[in-house]
């Protein structure tokens, strides 16, 4: 088993760090409206359904922007794409500070926050691009741990909103974006794993069954993570009548688990196989979703969410151990497409939770629905893996050597 030091020596740690920081701060900005949900809801007297839609809009916008940014990154480079994106985000934060003064403005700002959500595929591909196949799971797990930006958002946004007004929080966010931008410019180097391909070759992952299979799994793992991360401040505030700041702190506990465990998920996926890890975490997710329908005490609910987020985070890391094995030449595009569909699942979840609360008086129906969908995907995974193993991945989802792209767009194991 390779040590962490050995893994780092096999790649370019400064680029990995820059990718992590870039994703971390982008993720924090992406979920800002969710972190400030109780403040915005109180300001404009929103119904549960309106709150759910307001929270889901940045997720939806970010999902739709991921694939175009991934394609752009294949042409101008992932580092350059990241620099352009962060620069545009800073302009968007200026708009939020200066011009948001109504519910419709908040919705428009939600679309602009989606720009930050587009960073996913580029960040993971940039961070892992220097590392060999057998260590890509850990490298992607480290870069993907940037979804700990949720922790930054729910930890700092509510106190800032309470002290200075929630619109001013956008200004603070724009200023701190300078840090990852400078780090990206100074430390990152474009990985050498990018091949010159036609546009048709770049988007070939859109037309494979495997791409859509991965996307459905990611609807559960990442969609659940980002959807719940955005909705939990509102959930805790309304369900248990805690303060807005306390709701953010409780959300932080769950989000921190999901972010940190993502690295562990990638690490164990490298060694045990991504398929094996995914099977375990999907079972754990089903159990926690169903347990939450009983509306237990605040302490038990928080612990269940921590367990749920840990499972979802490990699943995110495990899934993206498999992506570069399946699409080694266009990981950024494949990752962006999978991330786009997964994030769309996250956009659905706040709406489902809000509608469940508004029409049934409880959030339970939303949890039951997500548990049922997770069980369906778990059953499908058992069927899909029979076609994957031996074709482009080893037993249980471990690396099968260095794959190459065939003329038909299907991956085959490399031959000597």
UniProtKB/TrEMBL annotation:
<feature type="domain" description="Major facilitator superfamily (MFS) profile">
    <location>
        <begin position="14"/>
        <end position="387"/>
    </location>
</feature>
<feature type="transmembrane region" description="Helical">
    <location>
        <begin position="169"/>
        <end position="188"/>
    </location>
</feature>
<feature type="transmembrane region" description="Helical">
    <location>
        <begin position="216"/>
        <end position="237"/>
    </location>
</feature>
<keyword id="KW-0472">Membrane</keyword>
<dbReference type="InterPro" id="IPR044772">
    <property type="entry name" value="NO3_transporter"/>
</dbReference>
<dbReference type="InterPro" id="IPR011701">
    <property type="entry name" value="MFS"/>
</dbReference>
<feature type="transmembrane region" description="Helical">
    <location>
        <begin position="275"/>
        <end position="292"/>
    </location>
</feature>
<dbReference type="InterPro" id="IPR036259">
    <property type="entry name" value="MFS_trans_sf"/>
</dbReference>
<feature type="transmembrane region" description="Helical">
    <location>
        <begin position="138"/>
        <end position="157"/>
    </location>
</feature>
<feature type="transmembrane region" description="Helical">
    <location>
        <begin position="249"/>
        <end position="268"/>
    </location>
</feature>
<feature type="transmembrane region" description="Helical">
    <location>
        <begin position="52"/>
        <end position="69"/>
    </location>
</feature>
<feature type="transmembrane region" description="Helical">
    <location>
        <begin position="106"/>
        <end position="126"/>
    </location>
</feature>
<keyword id="KW-0534">Nitrate assimilation</keyword>
<dbReference type="InterPro" id="IPR020846">
    <property type="entry name" value="MFS_dom"/>
</dbReference>
<feature type="transmembrane region" description="Helical">
    <location>
        <begin position="365"/>
        <end position="384"/>
    </location>
</feature>
<keyword id="KW-0812">Transmembrane</keyword>
<dbReference type="GO" id="GO:0015112">
    <property type="term" value="F:nitrate transmembrane transporter activity"/>
</dbReference>
<feature type="transmembrane region" description="Helical">
    <location>
        <begin position="81"/>
        <end position="100"/>
    </location>
</feature>
<comment type="similarity">
    <text>Belongs to the major facilitator superfamily. Nitrate/nitrite porter (TC 2.A.1.8) family.</text>
</comment>
<dbReference type="Pfam" id="PF07690">
    <property type="entry name" value="MFS_1"/>
</dbReference>
<keyword id="KW-1133">Transmembrane helix</keyword>
<dbReference type="GO" id="GO:0042128">
    <property type="term" value="P:nitrate assimilation"/>
</dbReference>
<protein>
    <submittedName>
        <fullName>MFS transporter, NNP family, nitrate/nitrite transporter</fullName>
    </submittedName>
</protein>
<feature type="transmembrane region" description="Helical">
    <location>
        <begin position="332"/>
        <end position="353"/>
    </location>
</feature>
<feature type="transmembrane region" description="Helical">
    <location>
        <begin position="12"/>
        <end position="32"/>
    </location>
</feature>
<feature type="transmembrane region" description="Helical">
    <location>
        <begin position="298"/>
        <end position="320"/>
    </location>
</feature>
<dbReference type="GO" id="GO:0016020">
    <property type="term" value="C:membrane"/>
</dbReference>
